[in-house]
Design a protein that fits this description.
By secondary structure, this protein is of the alpha+beta class. It folds into two domains: 136 residues, Glycoprotein, Type 4 Pilin; 92 residues. 39% of the residues lie in helices and 13% in strands. Strand 5 and strand 6 form a beta hairpin. The longest helix is centred in the middle third of the chain and has 33 residues. The protein is elongated. The two termini are 24 Å apart. 21% of the residues are buried. The N terminus is likely disordered. Bound molecules: zinc ion. The site of zinc ion has 6 residues, from loops. Zinc ion binds next to loops.
């Protein structure tokens, strides 16, 4: 039982780590030698500013990773999510842009969202071939992030099934107590798009029964259940 107590203590430590990471310019991989004949001091200063800005975005990405268990699709969606969580009057998070060009940095996640590269849009403006950072290796702490993702996915999957159930009930009221035969009949009037399980991206099972209807997650085992669904008679079922 002892290791369970460690978890709450780890989070403040992680935050300190993240703050420390932002001030470690050595994380950027690039040739920082200014090109001969260029204005050496100003190029050097620019590189430092670029590395500082890359480090700030990297810190936000790592914070996101530990909370979600994966890196985001795009930087803009990540920022939107953080800013949604900010209370009224709290400052909004803004990502720095590339000091040399004023353009956005280039963010490239891997297809499974477990790695990324973040680079300046035009390395030549710094007189180098490459100026980029990539994901931090969290080693065993990756498991914490994955557990967090699993918890989030399970909560979200249950919420999506509730949304589908509520749409079915509306359909039922509008159609003289008839239930739809297929979920696709709910689109677009009752649902803009059909929700899918957030963990697998697969559509929900649906069945109209003599007493109502049942919805099921297509892959309950990824949430750690044998059965994970919503029934019109008993509500959310998971076991
Ligand atoms: Zn699911």
């Amino acid at each position: 039982m002892r290791h369970r107590r460690v978890v709450p203590v780890i989070l403040p430590i992680l935050l300190c780590l993240l703050i420390a990471l932002t001030s470690v310019p050595a994380r950027a991989h690039g040739q920082h030698e200014p090109t001969p004949g260029s204005a050496a001091s100003s190029t050097g200063a620019n590189i430092e500013r670029a590395v500082g800005a890359l480090g700030k975005i990297q810190a936000v990405l790592e914070f996101y990773y530990l909370d979600h268990g994966e890196y985001p699709d795009r930087l803009s969606t990540m920022i939107k999510q953080f800013n949604l969580g900010a209370g009224p009057g709290e400052p909004q998070l803004q990502l720095p842009t590339d000091p040399a060009t004023g353009r956005d940095f280039v963010y490239i996640p891997s297809s499974d969202h477990t790695r990324y590269r973040l680079r300046v849009p035009r390395p030549q403006s710094y007189g180098v071939d490459r100026l980029q950072v990539h994901q931090v290796n969290w080693a065993w702490m990756t498991r914490l992030a994955q557990a967090q993702k699993k918890r989030r996915d399970t909560v979200e999957c249950a919420e999506r099934m509730r949304v589908v159930a509520s749409a079915i009930n509306q359909y039922n009221r509008d159609h003289r107590n008839q239930f739809p035969e297929k979920l696709s009949q709910l689109v677009p009037r009752y649902l803009k798009v059909l929700p899918v399980c957030p963990a697998t991206g697969k559509p929900y099972f649906y069945q109209a029964t003599s007493r109502g209807f049942e919805i099921g997650c297509p892959n309950p085992s990824v949430h750690g259940f044998r059965i994970f669904g919503f029934s019109s008679t008993t509500g959310l079922e998971r076991h």
